[in-house]
Amino acid sequence: MSTQDWFAVRLSLQVAITAVIISLPSAVLIGYILAKRRFRGKWLIQNLVNLPLVLPPVVTGYMLLVCFGPYGPVGSFLAHTFHFRIAFNWLGAALASAVVSYPLMVRSIRSAFSSVDSKLEFASESLGINKFKTFLQISLPLASNGILAGCLLAFARSIGEFGATIMIAGDIPDQTRTIPLAIYSLANTIGGIKSGWPLVLMAISLSSISLICGEILERRGWRNDNS
Amino acid sequence: MSTQDWFAVRLSLQVAITAVIISLPSAVLIGYILAKRRFRGKWLIQNLVNLPLVLPPVVTGYMLLVCFGPYGPVGSFLAHTFHFRIAFNWLGAALASAVVSYPLMVRSIRSAFSSVDSKLEFASESLGINKFKTFLQISLPLASNGILAGCLLAFARSIGEFGATIMIAGDIPDQTRTIPLAIYSLANTIGGIKSGWPLVLMAISLSSISLICGEILERRGWRNDNS
Amino acid sequence: MTILEVDLCHQFKSGFELDIHFKIKNQITSIFGASGSGKTSITSMIAGLTKPNHGKVILNKRTLFDSYSHIDVPISQRKIGIIFQNHLLFPHLDVKSNLQYGIRRFSRHQSSTDLLRVCEVLEISHLLKRYPKHLSGGECQRVAIGRTLLSSPEALLMDEPLASLDDRLKDSILNYFDRILEEWQIPTIFISHNQSLVQRFSSHTIVVDHGKVLSTGLTADIIENHGPDIWKSAKGPINLLDIDSLEQDGESSYALICGQKIQLPSINQASNQKMYIQFSASDVVLSSNIIVNISTRNHLLGVVRRIVEQNSNILVAIDVGTIIWSKITMGAQKDLQLKIGCQIYCMIKTQSLEIVI
Amino acid sequence: MTILEVDLCHQFKSGFELDIHFKIKNQITSIFGASGSGKTSITSMIAGLTKPNHGKVILNKRTLFDSYSHIDVPISQRKIGIIFQNHLLFPHLDVKSNLQYGIRRFSRHQSSTDLLRVCEVLEISHLLKRYPKHLSGGECQRVAIGRTLLSSPEALLMDEPLASLDDRLKDSILNYFDRILEEWQIPTIFISHNQSLVQRFSSHTIVVDHGKVLSTGLTADIIENHGPDIWKSAKGPINLLDIDSLEQDGESSYALICGQKIQLPSINQASNQKMYIQFSASDVVLSSNIIVNISTRNHLLGVVRRIVEQNSNILVAIDVGTIIWSKITMGAQKDLQLKIGCQIYCMIKTQSLEIVI
Amino acid sequence: NKKSNNLMVFAASSLTDVLNEIKADYEEEYDTDITINFAGSSTLARQILYGANADIFISANKAWAHEVAQKKAILKRNNILGNQLAVIARLDSVYKPSKLKDLLNPKIQHIAIADPQGVPAGVYAKKALMSHGLWQQLQHKFIIGSDVRHTMAYIENGGAQAGFVYVTDQLISNSTNILITLGSSSSGIIEYPMLLLKNSNQNSDTTLFFDYLVSDEALQVFRKHGFIIHTH
Ligand SMILES: Nc1ncnc2c1ncn2[C@@H]1O[C@H](COP(=O)(O)OP(=O)(O)OP(=O)(O)O)[C@@H](O)[C@H]1O
Ligand SMILES: Nc1ncnc2c1ncn2[C@@H]1O[C@H](COP(=O)(O)OP(=O)(O)OP(=O)(O)O)[C@@H](O)[C@H]1O
Ligand SMILES: [Mg+2]
Ligand SMILES: [Mg+2]
User: Fold this and answer.
1) Given CB atoms, is D236 within the 8 Å cutoff of chain C?
2) Is the terminal CB of chain C with fewer CB neighbours within 10 Å at N or C?
3) Could you tell me which residue, C278 or D5, shows the higher pLDDT?
4) Which of residues 281-320 of D touch C (CB under 8 A)?
5) Domain check: are C266 and C299 in the same one?
6) What would the pLDDT profile of B124-182 be if each residue is shown by its tens digit?
């Protein structure tokens, strides 16, 4: 693999990890609310969250560009106030990955919270621990396996993200060319897709490693600790 | 919306539903095995299942094409033996959607099976019901909410699937042009994305409807049947 | 004086209706009733886990729930400790963290419930590093008890807290409860199917049946008036008598029961804790005069207060200073010509007596 | 004759070691031991839920588990019914479907356990359409019992099956158990902390302590030899007598025991099955002559065969055609001048008698 | 070895190979880093319109160049670079059309064409077919590619028996060959307009590179890769 390829691998990792970190807090919150609360506008939130799942990633990327691009409302605000830009930057790639993988993460986290026995939460409250602390000390740790699974899922999805990334971050070598963009670009050159194989294998092994890490973490948790 | 747009909506539905039906049986099986059994090659299966998640969909589509295309081993076999073709056909779109959404479905189903209390399965076996029947009568119904969620997720993902579909099914108007392909084609014209809004809204409402159906089915199940 | 006032109306979807009203002071009150009569539902509504259709729950003048003025204090602020029928330990925390989870959350009580003491009494000191899934049924139950006690609540609800424990543990835990509750002076609700536990442990009893309060009052009165109806076991109601004082004479021990002497089975460890003797109604033989040449050692003279016929058997309440129930056949009643007011000897084999601390 | 042979060695990660060996025939055997002594672990290994490190489980010559020859029969083919400490009802099935779930799975037994009968005895007929989450604790327990009985297993393991039930229900369910097990003739293991349940229900007892078998044998013997160590107060061995024939006289029933007549507590349903009467040694009063003016109805004349001193109590074996054990104080022995060979009356209250079918 | 200057080129993806070669040559000679963002012309145009910092935009057709030129300030532009459209088929295909009319033959079930609504290659193909009066008749045979490379993939993989791609693209493939080359008379002149955009952090190197792109040295490379040089 060329140094450019190695750069793509490093960048993909950086982007995917950032994407997970960006989305995690709100995904945990939304996942918890969707799992444990009943309220009026619930289906609306659910739909919003699922939007990036049903839209072609290119369209998602386009919407992000409209919003976060240098002329977009958020983008120009950030640029003027903090001299900070997201589009055409690795941060843009991270944002794209975060948005596209968000529904997967929320879903995983939501189902993790759903399977935490509400009676345990009641028990905690009856010991004088308020709802928020109960969330922190009971619901969150008990859902941690599912949250972890959600992160890994989002990570894997980010590693493979193409459509939205090329829209908002562009395919700029040494800046925003993640593994999928590099594969695509290789496919467009004379050697063709064959020269892309090392990168394809790299993508696969990254996700394998993340999965295996996840398994190990999970196995060390309370859930699978048998006999 | 034009008649072509309506065709895209109908086709997308057909493709997504077919994709779910194709993948469901094996996803249930694999999900169960991953959740409840421990064996040597487990991580390998997991990696294989997750492959379509980490690869850019275009690469996935390319691999499918290499395999199922008219010149691919499976494709040419099917063509010669059964005069039946998958690639460049709505079946190809269904196959692409099925493959791309497979990891999501398996994950959802896996975590559903994981949260079925093993002791209940033991109880069933102690009543003389063998492992297979226990699976059918206890594990499966108790995991049904998660399986349903997995189907909806796969459905939603299929509605939005673009990269692999365009690779293996091609964008043949009135034959394989699903909603995302239609949106993409609109986005490529200079008038641009604006004329694509009706289709974007259509995609969103399809997934909303599926989500709401899911909620209703879930609420009628045993899990949320309170007081 | 701490008071818990409860007023609950609820209609379950299954058709079961709960309609419960009672007040208890800082005392231990048993709720007694058949399986499915609504005991668990009552406690879960007091604690706030289930919301009743109508009603009111007031603890120490704090309104915890009132359907009319839409008050519904969050569970965590009700300061009510619950020991659940099914433990509900936190699976991701080890025993020690489980115990410390709610420690001193409610600040009123400052002593006699430190972690060490609780672990010692409940015999769980060796389990502190374990996780709940590696505990036996009884061990779980003990940890759950400890966890609740350590949170020093202002009222305590216990749903079969001792169901799967053996007698020795039951006794020592009950004594500990007794002492803590004596000190804390908080209203305590105790649910158990074990008649002798109810009798020993609770001063007051509320009898519920099909979701309604059947009767309420001092445990002793309830037993006198409703004993035969409530405890329908083959051996009749259980008699539980306070021992006034203890006397050792050679190898035998004697106790004074309302001024009358009674020989006890040999006790190994003499203790200076409060002791009771316990025997079932079917163990009490009645005779109209003192009989010699018989192995039965104890003859308590008393007056017949009530005669109840139940399933072709006769239950007789004899006042020997306290009430003793005896279960005899109809033939025996005829032979002895038992009538209310007549004097009679209650003969109780020493071997039938059980000593309870 | 059905035999269950158990041979288990297991080391838990927590350090707890299980090392258990016993054989039981088609009889009801209690496993008795303190909380955390390994009772639940034993049953779960017999049933196949936990795999022991070493050992062997053999039922009716079928090897269910053998670590040496690597035999491990699947749970579903072991034909062992378990009633779990925590119910484990299927939450997605209603009560009726729960009951029918394993019905007649094991085909040996054909009668006395149809759905209707089970529902009637367990008093759950009105619950058939409910889901487990809408049941009370005791109701869950009863459904779990019914579910297991209906699967007609070849061996039965029961872990505190009656813990949260009241006495009346306990009695009726126990009688039903008794009758079914009599008919089925299968090895049955019964775990309970309730001394009187163990005494009444099981013919044999295995005492475990810290994962080891402490002693095993007839319940009566165990009680006689280990009673005071195991139970806080023992009522002495249980006497179980065959009833030769039954006689109805007006409202009372009489039985002939080795030619002597004895009055029984009123029985509601007369049955033509074999019947026993059962009473504990402490229920037997000895007197040297027949006494009148006493509520005790039965005087069986016998000859003293053995006198055993145990923990300052006296156990007397009286031959009335069959042996009856009586437990009395040393003082009583002295007063009655009991010696081997002398004649004596055994006085037994009708109410102390329990009829076992 | 960071160079002191850098500039950003947005180029249509069909230029990937050739521009990479030119870039390498240029960087060897000058103290400038060149970054090239390859994507479909429509994506690039949209990125520029929404604020991407591009110094040079090379579009694959006039329409997208025009779109950008309308809304952004343009310092320089040229239309020197050109291409040719061709009908290609797999080497092993049974039926090889020799003129456009042959595409009507039923042995050709599908014809691969880049999206005629917006993708330049498709727009040119449509124009050529219109001029031969075949557009309407062939409608039902089209399989639409999202860009030229995708269109060619259809042919390579058997999705179509023939299709329209640029001559330059066919050179990359070794499983197809050119059957018909379309002249500018039928497809219209195929141009790759190069735009030098006015940018906030402009420097002289930008102009230097823009000029280099039309230098003989660069044109040589373009020709080598099959491009046509228009001399107006
Ligand atoms: N999975 C496990 N891992 C480690 N230790 C365990 C595990 N399960 C049980 N133990 C320990 O083994 C011992 C025996 O447990 P078991 O459940 O058999 O007790 P038990 O006799 O049923 O007690 P109880 O009457 O309280 O239910 C206990 O000390 C318990 O802590
Ligand atoms: N969620 C529910 N929905 C419908 N009915 C319920 C629900 N919970 C309990 N019941 C019914 O209400 C009645 C009272 O239940 P509860 O659990 O209070 O009984 P309990 O007195 O605690 O009995 P036990 O001694 O068996 O635990 C029962 O008949 C039960 O079937
Ligand atoms: Mg209850
Ligand atoms: Mg146990």
Assistant:
1) yes
2) N
3) D5
4) 281-283, 285-289, 291-297, 311-313
5) yes
6) 888 888 889 899 988 998 888 889 888 988 998 898 888 888 888 888 888 888 888 88
Give the count of beta carbons closer than 10 Å to the beta carbon of residue B212. Answer: 14
Other C-beta atoms closer than 10 Å to the C-beta of B194 total 8
Tell whether D129 lies on the interface with B, counting CB pairs under 8 A.
no
Residue C299 sits in which domain range?
Answer: 238-356
Same-domain pairing of D49 and D184: yes
Nearest by CB to B185, from E46, E110, E117: name it: E117
d(CA D240, CA D218): 12
CA–centroid distance for D13 within its chain: 33
pLDDT of residue A15: 94
CA of D165 to the centre of ligand 4 (A): 17
Shortest CA gap E227–chain A (Å): 15
CB contact under 8 A, B47 and A160: no
Per-residue pLDDT of A82-110, as tens digits, reads 888 888 889 999 999 999 999 989 988 98
Give the CATH number, domain containing residue C19: 3.40.50.300
Distance from CA of A222 to the nearest CA of D (A): 14
Q: Which of E117, E150, E158 sits opposite B189 (nearest CB)?
A: E117
Do C217 and C176 sit in the same domain of this protein?
Answer: yes
**What pLDDT is stored for residue A11 in this prediction?**
93
Co-location of D210 and D298 in the same domain: no
Claim to verify: residue C106 and residue C127 sit in the same structural domain? yes
Q: What residues does ligand 2 touch, defined as CB less than 6 Å away?
A: B 227; C 12-14, 16, 33, 35-41; D 134-139, 164
What single-letter DSSP state applies at residue E55? S
Q: Pick from D181, D204, D230: which residue ends a domain?
A: D230
Ligand nearest to the CA of D206: 1
Q: How far apart are the first and last CA of chain A?
A: 46
Contacts of C16 (CB under 8 A, 6+ apart): C36, C38, C211
Which of D 243-262 lie inside 8 A of C, CB atoms?
Answer: 251-252
Q: Are residues C86 and C171 in the same domain?
A: yes
Phi and psi, residue E127, nearest 5°: -60, -45
Closest CA to ligand 1's atom 26: C138
Per the structure, how many domains does chain D have?
2
Please give the C-alpha separations between residue E219 and each of A188, E225, E227, E231, in angstroms, as whole numbers: 21, 10, 9, 11
Give the model confidence (pLDDT) of A47-77 as tens digits: 888 888 888 888 888 888 888 888 888 888 8
Q: Which residue of A has its CA nearest to C84?
A: A123
Single residue among C182, C203, C230 that ends a domain in this structure: C230
Q: Which residue ranges have their beta carbon within 6 Å of ligand 1?
A: A 227; C 134-139, 164; D 12-14, 16, 33, 35-41
CA distances from C114 to A85, C102, D83, E8, E176 (A): 57, 12, 37, 71, 85
C210 alpha carbon to ligand 2 midpoint, in Å? 10
Domain ranges of chain A: 3-226
Please state the pTM of the whole predicted model: 0.80
- What pLDDT was estimated at residue A217? 72
The protein residue whose alpha carbon is closest to atom 31 in ligand 1 is C135
Shortest-distance atom of ligand 2 to CA D166: 25
- Do C221 and C247 sit in the same domain of this protein? no
Give the alpha-carbon dihedral of E207, E212, E214, E218, to 10 degrees. Answer: -160
State whether D53 and D181 are in the same domain.
yes
- What is the homologous superfamily of the domain B3-226 according to CATH? MetI-like (1.10.3720.10)
For position D264, which CATH number holds? 2.40.50.100
- Do A72 and E17 count as a contact with CB atoms less than 8 A apart? no
Q: Atom 23 in ligand 1: which residue has the minimum CA distance?
A: D36
CA-closest candidate to residue C3, choices C24, C18, C31: C24
* Spatial CB neighbours of A152, under 8 Å, sequence gap ≥ 6: A210, A211, A213, A214
The CA distance from D167 to C234, in Å, is 8
Please determine, for residue E69, whether its predicted confidence score (pLDDT) is greater than 50: yes
